[in-house]
Amino acid sequence: MSALLNSLTLAALAAPSSAPASPAGVTWTLGTIQPAGRGAITPGAALARPTLRLDGSGAALKLTGNTGCSPLSAQAALKGSALVVRGVQAGGSERCTDAALSLREDYLRLLNATTRYDLSGDTLILSGGAGRLTFTRTGGAMTQTPTDSLDGTWQMRVTPGPAGPERGQAALRFTFNGSKVTVAGLTGCNTVTASGALVGPQVVLGPVMSTRRMCPGTAGVAENRLLGLLRAPLTIERQGAALVLRGQSGQLTLTRAPVPATPGSVLPDPAATYTLTRLNGQPAPQTLRPVTLTFKDGRLGGSDGCNSVGGAYVIRAGRVELDGGLMGTKMACADQPDLGFQSFFEQRPTLSVQGSTLILKTAEDTWEFQAR
């Protein structure tokens, strides 16, 4: 098999060539997939589109990208219009839904069978005996940014597309921790969360989870466009102090989120878990789980006594302000007092830290937590 593959590779590279433009140095996103003997298929809007990027030249090309639900890497050889891909590695498929897994299998099969390419403007076609893959350009040469320089939280400054949501309707926060990426915030009418990874020069998110509030008219159109943007791979580019994430339907421009600050007081310890001990001067009510809070990297997390909760926050003028509300699990806890956790934080409580005690106060309630 190895000898046969080498023979095919040499034969493809020896084919006459008119030296067409090279597809290298560009990020390409899959537009359609066409198995042999069938019509072109456009992946559904809910699926993340596979991508690829070729770097290098000649017989020493490096291929990177993703299958839509897993990272992708390979070697490739290019001469004239001949392109041979070999040594494809596509990682595990545990993050793939059934639909994404089907697209992944077709994509990998056709990519492995590629013998030539055609490049016309912003369209790249890879073809072979098994069918063809059609891509569109989604980014040129990107500034390579070390992963650790992205660590921390970034907030959206510009919404996507010329007809995107009006500013103030959508607010997202991206948190990078090594290769891990999490997203939370407001997409217009609904709050959203997602997690994913850095795959080469791209952010690839897993399932994007959102609340289901109705969002009519132009606001709904804008929100759907933003959700569609998040569900496809986003190519990263640094522009000065800004981070630009580009997709097929628009782009997001992010700036580093301000470090939470409480003028005149001590910030919560990011390494501590604060547990509710007193409520309005009385011992905290008994709950299925302890009521807890954590404050780390611009994220408030913990438990409301029943469900796990979390959301982005900032502290302004000594008050805790949620950015996009709190998201939580949906477990039902019978025979447990409702402390009004969500509504308490919606009132922007003041925050103070006195040693290991954290105090949150609204006009009506005082919650006291101890660091553990």
Structure description:
The chain is elongated. A hairpin with a 4-residue loop joins β3 and β4 (71-79). The chain has helices at 2-13, 98-112, 217-230, 341-346, and strands at residues 27-35, 51-55, 61-66, 71-79, 82-89, 114-120, 123-128, 131-139, 152-158, 171-177, 180-186, 191-199, 202-205, 209-210, 234-239, 242-247, 250-256, 274-279, 282-283, 291-296, 299-304, 308-316, 319-328, 350-354, 357-361, 366-371. It starts with a helix and ends with a strand. The chain has 372 residues and is mainly beta. The model is unreliable at 1-18, 141-148, 158-168 and 261-265 (pLDDT under 50). Helices cover 13% and strands 45% of the residues. It folds into three domains: 2-139, Lipocalin; 147-256, Lipocalin (Beta Barrel); 274-371, Lipocalin (Beta Barrel). The chain has four helices and 26 strands. The strands form three sheets. Strands 18, 19, 20, 21, 22, 23, 24, 25 and 26 form a nine-stranded antiparallel sheet that branches.
